[in-house]
UniProtKB/TrEMBL annotation:
It comes from the Archaea. It comes from Haloarcula terrestris. InterPro entries: WH_DNA-bd_sf. This is FaeA-like protein.
Length: 63
C-alpha cells in the first residue's frame, strides 16, 4: 500500500479517528502491519496520533 492509499483510507473509515485494527481490516493486513505503517506516516508528519490507553492509540489526518 502506498502512503497516499493509507491516507485516503481515513476518508472511507467512519469517524474522525481510526485505530490500527481498522486500517488493517480495511486493507486486509495485520494490526501489526497497520501500526508499523501508521508509525512511519506519523514520523514524517503525514498522520497524527494520540495514546488513549495503556495500549490504545488513535490516528487521524488533518484536513
Amino acid at each position: 500500500m502506498s502512503d497516499s492509499e493509507i491516507v485516503d483510507a481515513f476518508e472511507e473509515i467512519e469517524g474522525p479517528f481510526a485505530g490500527a485494527s481498522e486500517i488493517a481490516e480495511f486493507f486486509g493486513h495485520t494490526r501489526q502491519w497497520a501500526h508499523q505503517r501508521l508509525s512511519e506516516l506519523h514520523e514524517d508528519g503525514t498522520v497524527n496520533k494520540k495514546k488513549t490507553g495503556k495500549q490504545s492509540v488513535v490516528w487521524w489526518v488533518e484536513d
